[in-house]
Predict the structure.
Amino acid sequence: MKVLLADDDAERAGAVARVLAADAGLTVVRLKPGESLADAVACLSPDVVLVDMARPDRDALDGIRHLAAVTPRAVVLFVDEDDPGFMEEAIGAGVSSYNALGMPPPDVKPILRAAVSLFRRHQQARDDLKDAEARLKERSIIDKAKALLIKQRRMSEPDAYKFLRRTAMSTARRIVDVASDTIKDMEGNAG
């Protein structure tokens, strides 16, 4: 697992990097001074981003928001003081794991692994939802085309579907594309 460590405090970042480097299964890379979080993620492709901030900083959340929008990754955030309002903002910005600690614990690896696992599950759920929405939209287009064929050409529902399927097969196109063209043609002719 590749971990991108983003911390402005060089001493603290060095301590965390040493703890993580002790695990042969982890590769630790660091954010360069002045480099944006999104640029570092795009360049280094980490599995998880560990952000450590002494004082919660709402401006830093903008970098996490941008990261979540451009190249989503699991983000683990360590802060020195607990602030429930900031925690809500951090999670809303895309933080997978929010941890209020004076210093990171000696072994942050389970936290990182849990954050990656939670992020992947959340990402899979979002992908599944997008797929379901796309299938539902396609089904709606096919149903509308069948309804127009039934109404305008006086076909039965099975015949309307066979017509769409046969046309799709003979033209080597997807049935939803044929249905979409059928709707355009039939609505254009009806107007």
Notes: The CA atoms of residues 55 and 80 lie 6 Å apart. The chain is about 60% helix and 15% strand.
